[in-house]
DNA sequence: GTACAACTTAAAGTGGACTTTAAGTCAACA
DNA sequence: TGTTGACTTAAAGTCCACTTTAAGTTGTAC
């Protein structure tokens, strides 16, 4: 247990554990998204809580936050609890943007699904499938 | 009715109608995603069915297809019904990729939501909120 | 007839997120 | 002791999807 907590990893191992390249880790560090520890020879090493931290960053990144926004978030975090409202505002904005894009891509997917269904009908040689895709969409109420 | 069908638009008007810039339209044309008609002076003009076409392309693009894939799709389309299986395969691959990423971003969102809730609890000054975020996630069963 | 806006082209530039390169350091192993 | 292999740095390069620039043409409005 103690051992697990205190385990450390060189950059290559760390990178593999989180599914990024060592170069990307260095890039993230340059951008201020994370900090590394250094051994006596100047080589980076990382801990299990660094893994948690990067995974969390990747979740935020996955909801659409850009590197600069993550950087801002990290800076606020370093400034202590006084910046919690700022951080919260940033995360909520991200959440809103995400929900907006979510609705949009759902509609894109609907059209993609419809097109696939339309092709499949056409491929099965449905005699009446001379119907143009736009008409088909209209019929489904999926146009626009 | 006849009028609506035969209405044409210069590139600026067309661009506005579909929410792209005129430059982007020209870029898409260069990339082979669409064709324009030309007037006697060599200027592009577009029809209502061009609008439908670009909107459809944007739906595909919105599900994650890249310009080169859209180009491939357009080329197959120009080759006639013999390429329907190819087109269908491309669209289904897009659909699969989309579903995969969809699941991923849903998880990213879940973590974002949890983090927001955690900050809100902290902000409300919940006395017991010295709980680290990781522990909070574990408690919710949302870790990883 | 001249000003103006909207168009035309080819080519260069941009932004974001990495990725690669070049040159070097270091520690462990045969 | 010498050769790997993993690391170090700063800087340049890449990819994608546009966007901007520069120089020129055209149709309409005054």
From TrEMBL, chains A, B:
Gene3D superfamilies in the record: 1.10.1660.10
PROSITE patterns reported in the protein's UniProt record: HTH_MERR_1, HTH_MERR_2
Signal peptide (residue range): none
InterPro entries linked to this entry: DNA-bd_dom_put_sf (IPR009061), MerR-type_HTH_dom (IPR000551), MerR_fam (IPR047057)
UniProtKB keywords: DNA-binding
Domain HTH merR-type span(s) in chain numbering: 8-76
Superkingdom of origin: Bacteria
UniProt-listed CDD domains: HTH_YyaN
Entry-linked SUPFAM superfamilies: Putative DNA-binding domain
GO MF: DNA binding; DNA-binding transcription factor activity
Name of the protein described by the UniProt record: Transcriptional regulator, MerR family
Species of the source: Lentilactobacillus farraginis DSM 18382 = JCM 14108
